[in-house]
Structure formats: structure tokens, C-alpha cells
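Sequence only, no structure available. Ideas?
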Amino acid sequence: MRREVQGLYSPIGWIHELTLLENPTFKPGQKVRLSKLNLLYGENESGKSALTEWIAGSFDLAYLSRWWDRSSGPIHLRLSYLNPQLNTVEMSIESETHFKVQINDRAVPFNPIQVRFIKLSDFRFPGADDLLSISDSLKLPVQIVRNLVSEIHTFQYARVRNLRFEANEDGINTLYSDVDGTVPQLSLRSLSGRETERVIMEFATAAARVSGRYTPTVLILDGCPSIIFEGFFDFYSHHLLDPDNQFQTFMCIPSRNLDLDRVRWNGWEVIRTVGSFKDIVVNQELRAT
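Reply:
I predicted one. C-alpha cells follow.
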């Protein structure tokens, strides 16, 4: 109330609902309700990544790069956004030169609402330098990736400890860390696939955690983690669900056996995409069988 009386800005923001109007992938007219934790679950090529790209692209055009000049047809969608009052953001794309956006039914040249998106894609080692590899995967400058180490160390629920980047005589950086359940101070490339993803998840959630303290933030996990092990959602509950983590999460995983009741108990909104190109439907009433 004091902030409102004094006219001070408070960094509150929440993407509440997505309405799919005209688009090249989904049946039009569907609505997707969103929560703090959102699990997009379905077969490959069933529109999971498209949903996250359209949501992010409504605020940052960089996320729409693969949707310009598509011959499959235009994209038209509507988002409801709380900050904390309800706002509607309507976006339509016909081509790279025909882009329109409306906020609360008023045409604007661009969306001025500030939301930071942090996206973690499939993690790979593009070169010998671990610092550059993590920077490339998160699309964050190497200086920020290096600074995130101290944030990880101060997070009481971190599953990785004692991280350090060590440069050799050629300036190539190797990351060493203590990962729960394995030998201390192994290099990143000496870890298993699951252990490597644990390290990268620490960097991604640390970045989202810091950002969420100061500006509305969405963490997109699309391709990493790729290994959903038994107890995964319990394992990362503190990283994603705790009140201190003031960001929304969108996780895309391929269809697999999941205890959906358990996932929902952990607070996730399960959004299943079903079907094939131009005929995909969204099912949020899924129950475990």
C-alpha cells in the first residue's frame, strides 16, 4: 500500500493464461492456464517448444526468430499478464515485416512490459572451454556465468558445492565441483550426463533466482534436463518451488512415464500436447493411469 501511495514500482509480474488463436501448430481457440511451475509434456514435435517461444516472443522478439517468414501461416495469440493488475497482451505475426501488438486492446509499436527470460537448452560441449560452453547454453555473458558461482555457494539447497573455474596456460577454463553422490572436485567433463545436468541446472536456477528478486522472470528449461530420474521433482523442489525463488518455470520434456499425481502434488501444472502439426490439442485434465 505504501508503494502504491508513493507511486513506487514493484517488480511483480505473472503470466497467467495463454489463448491460442490463429497459429500454424495448434487447433485455434484453446486456452492454456499457467502457474509458477509448468510442465509441458508430450511427444517430440508436438508443439512444446513453440508454446514457450511464443510466450517469450510476446515480450522479446528474439525468441520468434524461427517463426518469421513461415509459409505455414500467421501466428495470433493472447496472453493475460498480472503485474498485479490484469493486462492483456495480444500479438500477431504475418511475416517478418508484419508484426502487431496490443496491450489492453490498444495498439503499441512494441511490448514495453519488462519480463526477463532465462532459457536453458540442450547442454553440449561446443569446445574445450567449460565457461564458454555454459555461457553458450544459457545465452549469458561469461562474466555473469563466473559470478553465478558465489550465488550457488550461498544457496542452502544447492546440490553442487565448491565450484571453481581454473584456466590453463592457454586460457582454457575447466570447471571443477563437488556433486552430491560422487568424488569431490571432478571436472565437468568427468561427470555422468545426469551429474553434468545437475551442475548446469544450478547455474540456470541461480540466474533466475537473482533476476526474480528485481524483475519479473521466467525460466525456460527446454532440452536440459533431458534425464528425468526417479524423484526428480522432489530433488529440485527447493530450486523451483520455494517462495525465495520468485520466478515462473516452463519445463519441456518428451512423453515418458510420469507419476502425474506426484508431479501435481509438487505444485506443477501439467500441460500435455497431443497430436501432430496443425492439429495439436492441449490437455490439462490428464490423470495418472
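Residues 131 and 173 are 6 Å apart (CA to CA).
Hope that gets you unstuck.
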